[in-house]
Design a protein that fits this description.
The chain contains one helix and three strands, in the order E-H-E-E. It has one helix spanning 29-44, and strands spanning 7-11, 48-53, 59-64.
């Protein structure tokens, strides 16, 4: 739904490291599951060029091809 060249920036995608960890507290499970799904979608989408920076709580930068 975005035009070619659009840049999408998503902050806090690693959520205190929980997204990369096997252990997640019960109250964070839904957020972690949704963030993992988002990361899978943006990294597997052939129309997007995506980089995830592991700074702070994580930053995902995607560009629409």
């Amino acid at each position: 739904m975005s035009h070619q060249g659009t840049v999408i920036i998503a902050d806090n995608v690693l959520y205190k490291g929980y997204v990369m960890s096997d252990y997640n507290k019960h109250k964070q499970r839904t957020a972690v599951r949704n963030l993992r799904e988002y990361i899978a979608n943006i990294t597997n989408d052939t129309n997007l060029e995506t980089e995830i920076l592991e700074v702070g709580d994580g930053l995902a930068i995607s560009k629409v091809n």
